[in-house]
What we know:
The protein is mainly α. The chain has 9 helices and no strands.
Amino acid sequence: xxxxxxxxxxxxxxxxxxxxxxxxxxxxxxxxxxxxxxxxxxxxxxxxxxxxxxxxxxxxxxxxxxxxxxxxxxxxxxxxxxxxxxxxxxxxxxxxxxxxxxxxxxxxxxxxxxxxxxxxxxxxxxxxxxxxxxxxxxxxxxxxxxxxxxxxxxxxxxxxxxxxxxxxxxxxxxxxxxxxxxxxxxxxxxxxxxxxxxxxxxxxxxxxxxxxxxxxxxxxxxxxxxxxxxx
Length: 231
């Protein structure tokens, strides 16, 4: 039996994302006042994805509780839709985007933090908020994966959606650059057009790899659980 019910964990995680988003939006940073605002940063987009995802999880838990023991077919149908939306978001957005943001951020940060998170930002963003945006995302999503089985779509369909998300974000970054003359991330200012194109292709490939890894991890966790139950 779990020490903390998964429903309570989801509510706590959702509240933590609300806190992180509110504190982040309250920061008076120059970047927030420029074209695209916070929405030009993948970190912020990911935080919104995670908050919406855990909001759907909490809503699914509430709906499941309310429909328990009910004979109403319409309520059951609505609950199945919510579960389907929850599983779809986990598969194609929450896990791959969250894993990508955490691993890419800290890899570049260790290599040369000024490429992704200039020291100037330390004057605006406290360390706890930085970790809330770039660290806790991954353990939170793994906790969710460990406590609840998520049905993945077909790999072809899932990879298509993930690639469309990645391409959409690349197009958005290029649009912001065309409007402002400045790239969203300092790293992109230091490389030429060909290297930038290669970087964008690698970005799309990597987020696709994270989708497959998420599917493999989900199946491994729940296949192992089933084996233990049978044993």
